[in-house]
Design goal:
It is built from eleven helices and 13 strands. Helix 8 runs antiparallel to helix 9. The strands form two sheets. Strands 5-4-1-8-9-10-11-12-13 form a nine-stranded mixed β-sheet, with helices on both faces. With about 325 residues, it is an alpha/beta fold. The radius of gyration is 20 Å and the shape is globular.
Length: about 325
């Protein structure tokens, strides 16, 4: 399968302040705050949900197509993704804006002060999926992940117009979207991805019940945190898959992206939904054991040892030949 992933591309600049923000704030001067903090550490991480998902798929060998917008400063990031099996030929490079950036300082109490610069991400709305499809010889599935909201709407409408199967994955953008926008984005999706909290928010904002939503999408995929994932289809029993045992819990950032990468890779291989979900849960577990959303390395032997222990020899035999 040729799978395109539309979504954000960003750099994260994460700093640590050894003191407490609260100690630096004067109650009667909050209307005129002017502060700077001498930080101890700076970690620059590659991020963005579109790039994170594609990185995981690339690690599994499925050659995903990344569709998004970045700035002229993207070249080093592009080289990284290219080396890890991602097709970056459809990334739009802005002539005037930098790649989206999240800058965040965390204090000793784990309070955070952060800013998100949208930058070139706003130009994702200018990307036409037809040009992507023409370049790669057609698309079998488009995952529409969190991105510039206007881009998400335009990509969804183009998929419908051109009859390209699509998956809806609002993620962090759901908070700013109206019920009308969410209805547009999910109606007719082959897959609808969300976590448990987002599931409830989708139902609340759209006014549609769980049963009504199941009649409007092919499959509803709900991640359940440490309990794994549930896959539902109207008129059929739900499929539930648990997570492998964690060896450590280092950082949960990017775990949802990793699950999607594994699940989509399973779809690309042609395995069933249960196997695809197992691959997704295994990859998500490896990511939660790593600091950073794209800092993990996949070893085929290690992956299969963990996968076999979690899901058994029959499941491992079916998956092994694709890695």
């Amino acid at each position: 399968m040729r799978i395109a992933v539309t979504g954000s591309i960003a750099n994260d600049h994460l700093m640590t302040f050894p003191g407490r923000f609260a100690d630096q704030l004067v109650a009667d001067q909050l209307h005129t705050v002017s502060l700077s903090f001498l930080v101890d550490t700076l970690n620059v991480r590659r991020g963005g949900v579109g790039a994170n998902i594609c990185f995981g798929m690339g690690q599994l060998g499925t050659r995903p197509i990344l569709v998004g917008a970045a700035g002229a400063d993207f070249e080093e990031y592009r080289a990284w993704l290219d080396r890890h099996g991602v097709d970056t030929g459809s990334v739009r490079i802005s002539e005037v804006l930098h790649t989206a950036r999240f800058v965040c300082t965390t204090d000793a109490d784990h309070n955070q002060i952060g800013s998100f610069y949208t930058g070139a991400m706003s130009e994702a709305r200018l990307i036409e999926l037809k040009s992507v499809a023409d370049r790669v010889g057609g698309l079998d599935l488009v995952l529409i992940a969190a991105d510039d909201p206007e881009a998400m709407l335009r990509h969804t409408e183009e998929c419908r117009t051109r009859e390209i199967p699509f998956a809806a994955d609002f993620s962090q953008q759901i908070a700013r979207m109206s019920g009308d926008e969410i209805r547009i984005l999910l109606d007719g999706a082959l897959y609808l991805f969300s976590n448990e909290y987002e599931k409830g928010l989708i139902e609340s904002k759209t006014g549609w019940t769980d049963e009504e939503i199941l009649t409007r999408v092919g499959h509803r995929v709900t991640t359940l945190g440490s309990r794994g994932v549930r896959i539902e289809r109207a008129g059929e029993p739900a499929i539930e898959v648990g997570c492998p045992q964690e060896e450590a819990k280092v950082d949960p950032t990017g775990v949802g992206d990793a699950f999607r990468a594994g699940f989509l890779s399973g779809l690309s291989w042609g395995v069933g939904h249960e196997r695809a979900a197992q691959v997704g849960c295994m990859l998500a577990t490896l990511v939660v054991e790593t600091l950073g959303t794209q800092e993990y390395t996949l070893s085929r032997v290690h992956f299969m040892e963990r996968f076999t222990k979690a899901y058994g020899h029959d499941a491992a035999t079916e998956v092994k030949r694709y890695l």
